[in-house]
């Protein structure tokens, strides 16, 4: 009798475990491979609409996503709740091509292309965070009424502003880190509007490698512009191997705009040991035929 009871308990446990299923693909999981019943939605990122910042300031309106980003994340929401998320990296065979299976209904679709060490956290469509670091980021958001199998090519929009510090003097050998600390932008994205939505204190540290010493160099940082703020306050500090400050410069009122580069060019290290001031010229660049505004400081 006791053996029969034990057998029944074991059978109930097995049935309970077999009935568990995942509701959505989590933040750190790869694209789903299981078969599901429902309506199929196929997405293909055909181009990044405003790429790229570079290329001799010429417009490239059909840049492949794999050339600028190493991650793609797709999230689907219904009535404000995320019901599915799929993440891809460049190691995935069909990077930039996504297939989802959903019950028929109305949804909000959010697609992000970016680079980083981790996938974006997209639990809340109005507060998307990037713990893997800020990068060049592209966005697509749309309300869909999914009633039949659908295939759609999408063009994504750049939603970040870039600040570039372009050094005209050589990096000294005792500099081991260049630290950027800045406010005025946002590291959190409102996925519905494509704009920044919090007052962030952002930072970015660049390790100075041996091949950078004795040469000039460019350093790029990114932020999501906010509707109420179009300027950054940026502190750039050069540190030695023990974390001691060598020289520091403060840039205030730095104008930014979505899909534009604010470039500051100058001799950053010319004041080291002499007390003299470095001079900078700044310009605002956009990739719509790269119109620019030049400012001298």
Automatic annotation (TrEMBL):
Keywords: Signal. PROSITE patterns: PROKAR_LIPOPROTEIN (PS51257). The keyword Signal applies. Residues 1-23 form the signal peptide. This is FimB/Mfa2 family fimbrial subunit.
């Amino acid at each position: 009798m006791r053996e029969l009871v034990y057998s029944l308990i074991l059978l109930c446990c097995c049935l309970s475990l077999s009935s568990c299923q995942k509701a959505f693909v989590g933040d750190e999981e790869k694209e789903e491979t299981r078969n599901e019943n429902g309506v199929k939605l196929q997405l293909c990122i055909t181009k990044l609409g405003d790429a790229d910042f570079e290329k001799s300031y010429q417009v490239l309106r059909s840049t492949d996503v794999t050339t600028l980003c190493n991650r793609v994340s797709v999230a689907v929401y219904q009535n404000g709740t995320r019901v599915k998320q799929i993440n891809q990296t460049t190691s995935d065979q069909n990077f930039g091509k996504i297939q989802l299976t959903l019950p028929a209904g109305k949804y909000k679709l959010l697609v992000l292309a970016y680079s980083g060490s981790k996938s974006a956290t997209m639990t809340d469509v109005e507060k998307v965070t990037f713990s893997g670091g800020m990068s060049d980021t592209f966005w697509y958001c749309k309300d869909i009424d999914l009633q039949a199998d659908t295939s759609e090519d999408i063009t994504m929009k750049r939603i970040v502003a870039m600040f570039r510090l372009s050094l005209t003097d050589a990096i000294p050998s005792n500099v081991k880190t260049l630290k950027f600390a800045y406010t005025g932008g946002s590291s959190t994205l409102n996925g519905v509007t494509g704009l920044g939505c919090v007052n962030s204190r952002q930072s970015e540290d660049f390790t100075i490698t041996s091949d950078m010493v004795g040469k000039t160099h460019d350093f790029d940082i990114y932020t999501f512009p906010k509707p109420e703020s179009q300027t950054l306050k940026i502190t750039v500090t050069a540190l030695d191997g023990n974390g001691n400050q060598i020289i520091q410069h403060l840039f205030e009122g730095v104008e930014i705009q979505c899909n534009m580069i604010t470039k500051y060019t100058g001799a950053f290290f010319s004041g080291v040991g002499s007390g003299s001031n470095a001079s900078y010229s700044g310009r605002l660049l956009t990739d719509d035929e790269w119109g620019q505004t030049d400012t001298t400081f």
